[in-house]
Amino acid sequence: MVSSKNIINKCLFPVAGYGTRFLPATKAMPKEMLPIVNKPLVQYAVEEAMEAGLTDISFVTGRGKRAIEDHFDVSYELETQINGTSKEKYLAGIREIMECCNFTYTRQREMKGLGHAILSAAPIIGDNPFAVALADDLCMQASDSNGVLAQMTEIFQQFRCTILAVQEVPHDEVHKYGIVSGEVMKDRLIRVTDMVEKPSVEEAKSNLAIIGRYIMTPDIFDFIRETPPGKNGEVQITDAIKAQSEKGLVLAYKFKGSRFDCGSVEGFVEATNYCFENHYYSE
Length: 283
Ligand code: G1P
Known about the structure:
By secondary structure, the chain is α/β, with parallel strands linked by helices. The chain contains 10 helices and 13 strands. The protein has a 5-stranded mixed β-barrel. Strands 2-3 form a two-stranded antiparallel sheet. It has a two-stranded antiparallel ribbon with strand order 7-13. Strand 9 and strand 10 form a beta hairpin.
């Protein structure tokens, strides 16, 4: 019998953050609903999860995030309006998601950091390994590989440990990311020996940045519970994973594909241009 500890079907989306860099657009709308061409950011990430077989989708939401729940639900008026018309094709993608995936929502009542957001979902996740996706990081697959989460679930089948997606970034940008250092194990895989959340250039031991895709084993919840507030007074997932890496194997994976930082206006514009040129078909 295959134990549930070997199978990942859950993906967690922390979406409680305010999106202040996109004000005023995000004043009354979740930043995850900002469209890249004609699809909201969060839908790209859910599609990536679905491609990886992660069909139990959980959101850690907050106040003002209702539009995300509505997006993954039926809109009767709209459906009735466009049934049988040429516009139905625009809903094909979201309909497929709704058929294939289950959705669960929980709220993070206080903004105490990404670690705290993930811990809020402990009752939903239970004693299972799970993926985490930050929708701000838009990951587009390379022509010769799967999406990033699918690449990571494959690695998990072999190593059964926490895995972080990483990418080399310019040295003057290390202060924006969790930075990882470690020993190269094999092509694209690094055994993590140290991690620091948003270090200065002087503090950073490498330029390997954590991108918003993780696979975590459920013991991470205990590590988060023991993690004191760190950078910016928030409970940082980076600190909890560092503690986990001191007790066992944690891997960083240099994924294949491109990634856009859609939490910044520049990255958002780049992603929009990229998706318009490469993925948008109006007919
Ligand atoms: C979070 C994590 C950070 C990671 C980043 C990836 O930071 O705390 O370690 O490198 O996501 O996007 P945030 O961008 O939410 O401040």
